[in-house]
Amino acid sequence: MNEKYVFDAIALFYLQKTSLPLGLKTVRDKILRRDATAIIPTIAVSELLWKKRREGEDAFKKFQNAYQVWKQSDNILVDPFDESILDEMVANETSSELHDEIIAMTCKKHGTNYVCSNDEKLLEFWNLQGIWD
Q: What CATH number is given to the structural domain containing 96?
């Protein structure tokens, strides 16, 4: 079965490093072997874009290249913030934080509890299985 993993912005940032947390490295390797699907919410892409612009031209160019690869890959989905996610948000009576809720509702939309994140608040409030260490 092809597992699905939703990525937050911090996980996307760490994927560019040479030394990765073990859980994140394992997921990255599964994706590279095409044994898993990466789901990258547009909010996470936007946060990474903002950070890379601030780091300078080289970092921004690397981001642009990565973004093109993601869009062309058959097992990486850049997932839009759309009405289905908004509908799930409207159905919730409470939330912990906007970005976290969008990530959590993206998990729900795609039927997965796996989220590549070390954000304890995201994991605890939304009862998701964090993939990191």
A: 3.40.50.1010
Contact in structure between 117 and 130 (CB atoms under 8 Å):
yes
pTM, entire model: 0.95
13 neighbors 52 (Cβ within 8 angstroms): no
Query: Which residue type, as a one-letter code, is found at position 112?
Result: T
| Sign of the alpha-carbon torsion through 48, 63, 132, 79 | positive
Give tens-digit pLDDT for 114-132: 999 999 999 999 999 999 9
As a whole number of angstroms, the distance between CA 64 and CA 107 comes to: 25
Give the E-state strand segments of the chain in sequence order: 3-7, 36-41, 76-79, 114-116, 129-131
Cβ-Cβ contacts under 8 Å for 58 (sequence gap 6 or more): none
pLDDT tens digits, one per residue of 65-112: 999 999 999 999 999 999 999 999 999 999 989 999 999 999 999 999
Look at the chain and report how many structural domains it folds into. 1
Residue 51's domain comprises 3-131
Nearest to 100 by CA among 23, 49, 41: 41
